[in-house]
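Q: Fold this one first, please.
A: Sequence and structure below.
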Amino acid sequence: MRLLLIHADELRYWVTKKAIKEAEELEKKEDGFEDCLVVFWASEKSDEENLDVISKNAADEIENVARQINAKRIVLYPYVHLLFGAEPSTKTRAIELKDKILDLLKEKGFEVGKAPFGYYKGFELKCKGHPLSELSRVIGEKEVGEEISKALKEEEKLKSYWYILDLEGNLIPVEKFDFSNFKNLKKFADYEIAKVRTVEKEPIHVKLMRKLELADYEPGSDPGNLRWYPKGRLIKSLLEEYVGMLAVKFNAMEVESPVMYDFEHPNLAEYLHRFPARQYIVISGNKKYFLRFAACFGQYLIMRDMTTSYKQLPVRLYELTRYSFRREQKGELVGLRRLRAFTMPDMHTLVKDMEQAKEEFLEQFKLCLKWIKDLGLEFEIAIRFWREFYEENREFAKKLVNLAGKPALIEIWDKRPFYFVMKFEFNVIDTLDKASALSTVQIDVENSERFGLGYYDEEGKRKNGLLLHASISGAIERNIYAILEQEWMKKEEKGKMPVFPLWLSPAQVRLIPVSERFNEYALRLSEELEKEGIRADIDDRNESVSKKIFLAEEEWIPYIVVIGEREMEGKKWKVRIREENGKIVEMSKEELIRTIKEKTKGFPFKSLPLPKLLSKRPKFGK
């Protein structure tokens, strides 16, 4: 079932004529409502399998929105166009579903109205225009094989208060903030407040990940699981290695833990319901297990069995979880942005108390800043607080925005629905104006006690500590999505050629021999570049030089060098530089090597994952 919810000053409709035989009995040819939540609705064929569940879920969601905007009156308006080509339910079942929703809303204490089903109508609508006045929802029933935590259900009902925290520490209600110089922050705020996660149009990165032969959907698996081709696997492995380097340099100790856990474990079962995620469930024998959605459980259980002194704090454990699993809803699954199986670098830190937690939080915030800046990504900040914690730590919040050098979107809850008192996220905005979280750190005040995680103090007494959850990068796949989307935006908005960060480009240099006679020389050059830590390949195919240059540009190759007599004689190369929009610069071989090594210094290197000769490569994907 699809809903479009409009908080309106006024709705007026009038019937023009009957549209279908099964139209419901007409009570009024025209009617009007003031100060109401107008719910445009459309019922799908799949809704018919369980009208009771769908009607209850729809009524609960409508109630949730109505309570947030303080609407007392609700009007249901049939609007089949919301289905976007999906098969509609039968007319009688649609009417039955609508009647069930009306009855449930009446029971919840709302004044309800409706526009008649099965008629052509004209209408006038005056929308109020505040951040929550236009929302959309996809209503379904819980899928087989998933478990929905209490925290996720609570999150859906949670009342949030939204602000912008500026660099002076002023907390400004979002509707009063001047977004004139903060275009992306406005997009981010609108997206977060609306809480619409479904994607109705394929984002550009899906086309790019296929075109660049990075990854694709795997039809032989569950939706939200991908296949990775050699170039995509290279990029992914370099990101994995780099985030691991940062974690180890930060004195985190790398561990490894299982992907599957006992659903009835006394500590884990309780924690499951404090984490807002849908779990995969696996039945083995007569026991129920869940697939991990992060490294939390494994690292908690390792920490529980550690012997830790107060002198050793903070203690950090790190794991690259390939894979973590979350049974995201189908309408939200798209490309690399939101998956059901993903790679999550996960770090947990045991600290002594809240003061040490805040000190560590600041250092991890800086580490996340380094990550996102090293990838060249534009980002927006979200910081989420339990109100009581925010009021006690206003200066701490101000430090964060000053470290980042930009204002942040603040979400505040009156009660604490989760195990953390605060968290931050760095979010990226894509070509569809959707936002996705990457780096994050949370201060956890529950799980050290729940799992018995502590340390021995100066007197040798065992004490509970506090925990920080951190992912320096967020999901690795989502970082690739962010690069693809934002590089494409640079092309669309600024006319720049999209390009991967040089250290991530599968081939950093493309050598193009002008004829077959120069192939052997080009091969020797590529091997020489490889020894210098530079990935170079050779287009030896039977194509014109101009076409080879065009194809290299289509692959986002950073440096293109045509190899002919001049180059064999040792003269300077004419290098086409993608980062400078295809500008041709004369450089010696040594200058090119030095330039690339300087730009990739400090980042990991891996060899080319494909044959150097393009004529020897298969094409991946359909």
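Q: Good. Now the second chain.
A: Here it is, same layout.
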Amino acid sequence: MPITATGFDPLTDFLNRIAGNRVPIPLIATTLDVTIQGGLAIVMTERTFRNSENHSIEATITFPLPVDATLCALSVRIDGRTLRAVSEISDKARETYEAAIGDGKAAILHEEPLKGIHVLSVAHVMPGTEIVVCDVWTAPLSFIDATPRLRIPTTIGEIYGCSPLHQSDDLVVAGVVHNASIGIVCKSGTASVVGAGVAQRGRFKVTLDRPVDVIVDGWTQETLEGQAADGRKVTLEVTPLGRNQSNLDVGILFDRSGSMGERAAGDSEIVHAKFEIAKSALLTSSKDLLTPADRLQLWEFNDEVDFLGAASGGEAPALVGKLRNPVGGTEIGRAINAVIASEKAKNLIIVTDGKSWAFDPQSLARSGIRLNAVLIGEDALEAGIGHLATMTGGQIFIAAGSDAGVAIAMALAAARLPHEPPTPIIGDLARVEAMRRGARVVAIWGEKAKGAASIAARQIGATAAALAVPLLPEHAAATLAKSEGIVSHLTSLVLVDENGKRYGALPARRKVPLTTAAASVHPLNMAGPSFACMTLSSWPARTLAASRPKTKSRSSQDQADSQPGIQLGHLVGRIDWDADPEALRQGDLSQLAPPTAHAIRTAAKSPAVLQCAILLGLNPIVLIIALLAAAAKGSNRSAHRLSRGILGTKPDPAVATAMQVIGL
């Protein structure tokens, strides 16, 4: 275990296990099967873990799901046997799992430490064996326009603020690419996967470097019938919301942080930054959708908050035009607190890419505001902001890029609706109503059903129960979640193989990283005290440098410096920095001569470059391009801008080290 002057160094540990020791990533296959009926999607995800090492391992993966998803079942296949998990209070489930590990038993644990963030742990995968884990979750479709859709998040961007997750559970991103096979059964129209082409033998093939977007043509509304754990009948209906014509009085919080300056990679034809797309969409909506009787107040925020003013509907476009270009960090909590303190608005819409841990949804929700959220970009993380929106009676609208205008229009329509804060439930469950992604979701419990419930009926019953859980007192909520077999903030799913083979030693831990988001670039010019603590994939080099050992002898340092490195200095003059610097910023090498592109790709695979890339929170190819641009910045303005946009303007020792590594 690597120890530094500040204690355990998680980055060094991760590098040793993933890059340095070249241990195999245990996740070898992922399949998804989506069933769409009425306005509900039921998603079964099957992950195959294989241990190619010579000792037992524990495989863990932390991943996002829609914040309003209900994970309601988990099973595993081990040695030809199928075992099913049970729901337990979270602390008890963790204790059961850890005890099983100590006893040498195979065990599975599925937790949701934060709303929308799930952790799957698979312990004692024996050498040479496979364990197949299958989970089932449900979520309402999103109705941001005339075409219903389902978005399955698979990636994350750079996240700012101190992570509230346990170090072992934190989100990790690396240069691996996970693939998946997707099958869809649609009982309420015809479904397809955006960007996946034509299905082969009924299944779509995708890479998990971008969210999976499923759209439904010819959708028809349908009342779903299910069964609760107590045997009662349950009906579930998802109804798209109509347009409300009441006057609008809304506050807009617009994110102008540096991450909004990244390209919106949700659609291949979109080359503009997320900020530009969102600003243009807000400008169009303010012109077309606001009436003279409407009132709009506008704030912009990064790591500071500025009130830009208030305007009637006719004057709103001029107000939107005051939004300034993106720079700095993301302080969502500070922005919302500033609006609350001003007492200018209780009805809010936030437009952001959601990349921040730096706020507490629970405390903000108690302020009495209603928040509707528009999340921009494939790497948006809805865990915090989406949770806040649902707790305040608001909705979430996610736009990959070109659909930002529709998302903002739907958010304005949602803001016109009467504020209906969720009503606490007292007594037996009878009826629950919630707003979800442009739809009204209503669950009604009835009389006892006859006979045993089917699997599909129980999934609908569990989905209905999940709507009720946040409205119940904690003890009643935990009891309901446990009986319905769902994962929540109070309960987890756990499974122990009591009859399988046992392994006498503790398993080695293998973290499965998420795939880096396609075309994702994380600019590092966002320095500030709020960014002192981040995920492993995005900690700034200055923070990591503080945790490195400071006891290396001079002779060993001299030996390290004398090692032959990669020599890429000759490439600086071979790159046309003016041709398409934005493509280079995205790591696109297609414009370069094949020998130059080959040299960069080859260098990007070296352990030394990989280590520097992780230290700087960059894709390795983007890192090399940025360093070459830094070497050329004295003679070319485009190279200077490119270097500054990726690496920032402040001197960073890690950048100097990285340049030395590649011979610059």
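Q: Anything worth noting on the second one?
A: The chain has three domains: 26-219+491-512, 249-416, 552-661.
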